[in-house]
Amino acid sequence: MAAECGKCGPGYPSPLEAMKGPREEILYLPCIYRNTGIEAPDYLATVDVDPKSPQYCQVIHRLPMPNLKDELHHSGWNTCSSCYGDGRKARTKLVLPGLVSSRVYVVDVGAEPRAPKLHKVIEPEDIHAKCGLGCLHTSHCLPSGEVMISALGDPKGNGKGGFVLLDGETLEVKGTWERPGGAAPLGYDFWYQPRHDVMISTEWAAPNVFRDGFNPADVEAGRYGSHLHVWDWQRHEIVETLPLQEGLIPLEIRFLHDPAAAQGFVGCALSSTIQRFFKNEAGTWSVEKVIQVPPKKVKGWMLPEMPGLITDILLSLDDRFLYFSNWLHGDLRQYDVSDPQRPRLTGQLFLGGSIVKGGPVKVLEDQELTAQPEPLVVKGKRVVGGPQMIQLSLDGKRLYITTSLYSTWDKQFYPELIREGSVMLQVDVDTVNGGLKLNPNFLVDFGKEPLGPALAHEMRYPGGDCTSDIWL
Questions:
Q1: CB-based burial, 404-428: b 16+ in 10 Å, e otherwise
Q2: Alpha-carbon distance 168 to 170, whole Å?
Q3: InterPro entries per the record (predicted)?
Q4: What's the predicted TM-score (pTM) here?
Q5: Tens digits of residue pLDDT in 62-103
Q6: HSE value, Cβ hemisphere, 13 Å, CA-based, for 433
């Protein structure tokens, strides 16, 4: 439809129209060398995912960044479906913030999508001076055409959940989105829903807390996030802070894609819960736990109980299925959320993880499984680590999975990831009855990269996807 409408801009007019979009042929994802012992810059990999291509499952292009140890993490577009009505806009730039360096790279994918080029570098000093923020995470385009990036801290690594605003045309730093002095105590992810005049943000921890690894004492000391922050979309200020019951470390947040919906889900990593947030009858916001992944009693691990550690979640574009990854337990799950208050498990796959048979961890008590899962071998390679970042095809029929979380935590929880590199897997989805099936012919092995094993993270398609596009 976008091609038929001369006045229309990027993306699709609605989530259901997006489901009719073309099949993905390439993926972009950042690959990280920080903490691997390899002195090389992070880079943006372009992967061929077209089964008809002779380069299927191969990295076909690598764009190295000009600096070391940025820890590229998440990415976003210069514009998306929120600007569908603006024919002057085009989705041509990928915004890549550095989680550790606070540097932002802007990559041009418009001219040659299979061979992106570096367009612009925003140095951390510019962000520090104009915004007083650092440790950048989620990037979303706004209906205004501007780009907003969430921050986790101040320039010294203390907690500060603010938002950097970039000009939509020049991609220069304009300042903060929130009012002066109005940042949240902690930050991480965010999603906005203009029809309800709301944005909601989540919180991980201050960068100084998580940067060098996970310490259980920090949990006991209350240094990890456990709240959602509700922002007035027009006034750019917090109007409610919602404490989460059994909701430690709320990370990825997703409103339903339907722009009229006043509810969504957030994955709470450490407590391994999925919480539904919603506008209540009083017109304020509430939150309730709707899924609990029980911990497993174990021996041979850092703690006597191992949480699932829900690290990524997403919703299909028709808002029917919720997917999430348990990075430590090693399973990927699909829930039917047609009734958002009562999610129903419809698919589960074990794709590695810490509790596989033959590993150092022995499960003593398990509320879900009768035996420890078998190790996963795909195309002759044993998969190390667990399912982490996930991305869904527009039609909802294919899930892509990578296994790296954050280099410091990878090194702590899955040291073999550092030695062998991460992988990308693909799972076929039954969109009629629900269900997940591993594609045994798909494997991208980042352990075989030219400069040595790399840690691959979040995935993006050139035409947008269900975690970067927001509709009005």
A1: bbbbbbbbbbbeebbebbbbbbbbe
A2: 6
A3: Se-bd
A4: 0.97
A5: 999 999 999 999 999 999 999 998 999 999 999 999 999 999
A6: 3
